[in-house]
Amino acid sequence: MKRLTHLIGYLFTATWLVGLFFKMMHLPGATMLLYASGIGFVCIFIPLLIVYRYKQITKQTFSERMKWIMGVVTVSLFFVASWMQLYHLEGEALVLAISFLFLVVGFLPFFFFRLYKKSLNP
Predict the structure, then answer these.
(1) 84: Cβ–Cβ under 8 A, 6 or more apart, which residues?
(2) Are residues 65 and 40 in the same domain?
(3) Among 5, 16, 38, 91, fewest CB within 10 Å belongs to which?
(4) Same domain, residue pair 80 and 121
(5) Considering its fold, how many domains does the chain have in total?
(6) Residue 60's pLDDT band (boundaries 50, 70, 90)?
């Protein structure tokens, strides 16, 4: 599962970089590569990463699990907002605001709570 997750992440990231290069060079197929890699990254890699990581942290505390879940949701929403901005789609400001809301209200409290707990028990 770990190898599959990392391989899929690598493939979608490499496809995205090739698409970005094609876009900068104004080569044909750039838009399709960017669409395919973005959708694959958000819809295939991120869920695989969540499942793989969640299996590892099921024995850990609730705050550690929530930190990972909120982090993944934040990154996914930010990625979608960036993608929407790149293609001038409507609603990107709302998606970006929601991603920052998840960051500030969801991820950061759990992140700093875990850091605080680790500092108490070195």
Answers:
(1) 90, 91, 92, 95
(2) no
(3) 91
(4) yes
(5) 2
(6) confident
Q: What is the pLDDT of residues 88-120, one digit of tens each?
A: 889 999 999 999 999 999 889 888 988 888 888
**Shared domain check, 29 and 11:** yes
CA 45 to chain centre: 9
Contact 77, 41 (CB under 8 A): no
Question: Per the structure block, which two tokens stand in for 97?
Answer: 């605001």
Question: Do 111 and 122 reside in the same domain of the chain?
Answer: yes
Domain range for residue 68? 59-122
pTM of the model: 0.66
Could you give the 3-state DSSP secondary structure of residue 31? helix
Distance CA 69, CA 64 (A): 9
What's 102's DSSP letter? I
Say if CB 52 and CB 5 are below 8 A apart: yes
Residues 85 and 98 in one domain: yes
Instruction: Assess contact for 81 and 92: CB atoms under 8 A.
Output: yes
Show the tokens assigned to 71.
């982090």
